[in-house]
Hints:
Elements: E1 2-5, H1 7-14, H2 20-29, E2 32-36, H3 38-53, H4 58-72, E3 76-78, H5 82-95, H6 99-115, E4 119-122, H7 126-134, E5 139-140
Helix pairs in contact: 1-2, 3-4, 5-6
Amino acid sequence: MILYLDTSALVKKYFEEKNSAEVISAWKSSLGISTSAVAYAELLAAVYRKASETRANKSLFERVVSTFQEDWSSFIIVEVDNRLNETIHKVIANHGLRGFDAIHLASALAIGSAVTDNFLFVCYDERLAQAARAEGLDTLPSSAPGRSR
Length: 149
């Protein structure tokens, strides 16, 4: 199975949060991980925000960044280009998504159309998950708990 992880799911791989075990289990059993190029900046922003908000050892965050960068080199990355922009426009118009959420959904749709089966969209934002299901993607969790934007 190929997984597409948005940033809400990626964060759970690197920090112990609710549903982290679910993400790690899916990751370990997958054939590959895909995400959008924008996830790089989003994940690093989340890491450094957590670092500034906590008193945790700086070396912990350095290890998280190092591990993420190692993982990144093995990901299937969807670049944002004019072709993807057409899909981004469509999902924003159809689902009222925020910019980065629309980029993630459009990226997942691009990968999902190439893979066709054994593809799972992993996210923990209910609004984005609902839009993904409406677009025909299978999601993990199948009904995403969590915040709705």
